Sequence to fold (943 residues):
Amino acid sequence: MYKFNFIYELKGLLRNGWIQLLSLLLFALFFFAFYNGHEKVNKRKSDILAAHQEVQESDQVMLKQLDSVERGMEVTASPWTIPSKPMAVGNYHPRVAAMDPSNLAFISTGQSDLFTHYVKPKTSGDDLALNFTEITNPVQQLFGSFDPAFVIIFLLPLIIIAFTYNVLSSERESGTLRLLASQPISLASWVLQKMVIRLFWILVMISVILTIVFYINGSDRSIASLLPVFGVTAGYILFWFALAFIVNLWVGSSAKNAIALIGLWLLFVLLIPSTLNQMGSTLYPMPSRTLMINQLRNAKAEATKKQDEILDNFLRDHPEYAINDPNQGRSFYHRYMASQQLVREELQPVIQKFEGQLQNQQQWISQLKWLSPAIIVQQELNALAGTSTRDYESYRKQVTAFAETWRQHLLPFLYNNQPFSSQDYKNLPVFEYVSLESDSTAKSTLVLAMIALGLVGLGFVKGMAYQSSRNIITP
Amino acid sequence: MIHSTFIKELKELSRDGRVRISFLIVVLLMAVATWISKSQYTTINEQYQEAETAERHIWEAQGEKNPHSAAHYGTYAFKPKYPLSLVDHGVDKFTGTSIFLEAHKRNEAQFSKAADQTGLARFGDLTPDFVLLFILPLLIVFLGYNAFTKEKEMGTLVLLKSQGTPVGKLIFGKWLGIFTPIFITVALLFIVAGIVLSNLNDFGVFSWTSLGVMFLVYLAYYIIFINLVLFISSKMKKSGISLVLSLGAWILACLAVPKAASNMAESQYPYPTRQEFAASITKDQKSGIDGHDPWNKQAKMLENEVLKQHNVDSLEQLPFNFDAYRMQKGEEHTAEIYFKHYKHLKTQFEQQSKLYRNLAVLSPFLPTRFMSMAVANTDYSTHWDFADAAETYRVDLQAFLNGNFAENSSYGEWSYRADESTWKEMPAFDYDPPELSEILSRNSSNSAILSAWILGSFSLLFFTTKKL
Fold:
């Protein structure tokens, strides 16, 4: 019976063109999505490369100028930009702090369209002067990107729904269910068989298509790197098949099934995520950015008024600098850097409040993401692609830390009134981005599979009750 | 015939439990979305007013100061929110809300809401525009997918045919049967929105005309969907297939095409990165007048020119402070450089908009989305408009400060302090959004596309369907 069913289904699906249509559709969607994903990643890579090259070129100029200064020659440049002054190095020759894309960055655009992937922190300015957002047409951000994550999260379930909504009802509607009812097989296990065949086909198709598309788009990585993506996707597919199975047994006519399934899709993919987001931002509201600006302004105004006093205090706290500063050679930057330090310290808790609330919201989501498989998959894919909220948060932290390193590296030169020399060039700090590791993929895949199995079990129970209590031939 | 078909359809729909539930859900969603939007809108506007007053106070209470220090100290322009943004949030979430106005530099709007949200926000927000743009078309699909297929499946079509019912009249009756409940629901929703909006005091001027235009735009959008769904239903034999196809059209129009368009716009007409943009401006600045740089060639030329003009041989003899004068000239030059680079951005943006309009052939969602955002003053053009207004104000502010500096001090007198009351003389920044008539003329091509869609879909439904 199983073998017959299998062969019959396969023939049926091939003859009515379902499998051919599905393969073409999936191929086209994934191809386009992979192409878009790769294009974004390539742009990001070339932007970062260009930034590095620019710094290299400007470094050559800097070394030449330093060389001239050291040999006592005149340098044709504005006096405050000559790199023998440590603050000129700090402000006019900043390093690139870049966030290189991870191997799987093309899978999901995530938050990457909102943020910039390299900044050059300078010695002057506060942490807020580092603008991490990118200039783009916001319409693109509003519409989102046609990336593999979109195909997987939004479109795959719809394709599965179209592929499965009438597994039982079409038999009933065409009258073949009467024949089947005479066979020694339970309704639920018969529907399950038909589902498993479809599931099998989709999984085969997806793995073949992913492999082909992966190579067409010229990825130099091994295909094994795609394995976690495939795992999560398979879990998600499983979930939707299980849902379709239960709806097939539970609901009724083809159209009713389709409406029920679309309703569920709407619930899981659109309504639950947006409601959770809304609740998250109500429970952990972001403080007002506009009011933060007022705070920032007041802190700065205070600091400017008391610059001399601040410098004195600063030098008292840092006797190592005061020794070399017998109250002479105090320039603008001596006072400025000291007062900036104070402003930074004062604003730290304000900025921390924003990051803290963002972390709280993220925490809230990771607790409640189990309510919708779409959220689980989105979070996993973003984490795998290195484009999640947490990745950008970690990048911001690393850059802020690097900005401090950069400042602390050059400050001794300033307060010791020691010129920056070409010897010191090689000791300049370099930024190295450390990406986050995502380790929850296996767990999420497992949970998705468990939910799916639970649903199938539920379907069986319902199927039995249904079969024994009612006439299955007419709904 | 039209009348009886219409009555029958309405009765049938009202008896169908699914339809009742769907309508209930839509109204419920809309109510929740409006309530959330309203409370957000009120808090944001309160914060806006508080910030604006505080910032003006900070500016005015600077005390005695050199005008150029005041220029560096700068001030902020805050972007106001308008009543209709409650209905359509548009791109507001992705654009910054405040622009820092300082000497020598045009800054971008900072602090977008999206950057302060988690990845979950990218699924979309539960807002009125989400319900209007995505959920209502879905409701239309559910109402109309089986309008003809059910007659075919139950065999009643044969009966109708045998009575010699004209196909056109039958279609029109069915069309009215779906259009009327949609029309009533949407009209009620808009009236409620209008009442809510006109009861919000103090915040911007609410205009019923704008809301009316928005209503018409959405009505056009729904008419197109009704036509398409009925067309599909008339061509198909089975309800299930008709439903799947209609859903396919919905997915294509509302999800797939906008996203694909976004990718195409981004890759064909890219913006420079923030750093590249800043770097190319710096590059231009190096070759132009730098307000601070007395060694600069062009500044030297300016010096000679001014000396000759006033018939004196040293800068000290000029009747004004040449430092401040040169700074102002430098400021004007910088403003020109910024203008040039922002113009490039604007060209890219216009090219992208053109691409979106071209792709509107595939999706009525696109022109609707753009029209709706434009009328609500939440589109990207309005943001540009605001940023340009802020830049004009910045340039005026610099001219005012440098003018004060030049007039009241002599060359080299950097110790000059302007009076405490000086800062009040500069009027506060004030921004008025574009008028409705201007918005409509700017979006004339979008309304043309929308009209073409209506005509096209109507003729598809009525002229290609001779036989059922």
Notes: Residues 2-463 of chain B form one domain.
